Amino acid sequence: MARDAPSVDAYGGGGFRLSGERREGSVLIVGDEVRAWPVADLAELTVDALAPVISAGPAEVEFLLLGVGARNAQPPRAVREALQAAGVGLEFMDTPAAARLYNVLTSEGRRLACALIAV
Questions:
Q1: pTM: predicted TM-score of the whole model, two decimal places
Q2: If residue 37 lies in a helix (H) or strand (E), which one and from where to where?
Q3: Closest CA to 116 of 56, 48, 50, 21
Q4: Can you list the domains of the chain with their CATH numbers?
Q5: How far apart are CA 49 and CA 71, in angstroms?
Q6: Which helix (H) or strand (E) holds 105?
Q7: What are φ and ψ of residue 39, in 5° steps?
Q8: pLDDT for 1-31, tens place per residue?
């Protein structure tokens, strides 16, 4: 895995198990740092909620892998535009798919951030 990126071992029940440790609620992973993320629903997603990703920029983060919840839906336009302006790509999908893909991509050494809305 890239650096010391945590693994997503399990998801569901309103949280995640990351590298063996249970985390309640949504999470934001930038590099090897995991943060509690106060976004419980895609409608709550704002540019400010992604400030750590945007400030990291393309030198540290190729793209953001966004798990949008139980069903895939497009993130708000302001979020998409802010990431594009920062030079950070965006891939979004339902949270279960994003959690699985995150492990694959970090094992390949990809430089990505991951924001997962709990399901």
A1: 0.95
A2: none
A3: 50
A4: 8-116 (3.40.1230.10)
A5: 20
A6: helix 95-107
A7: -115, 110
A8: 345 889 999 999 999 999 999 999 999 999 8
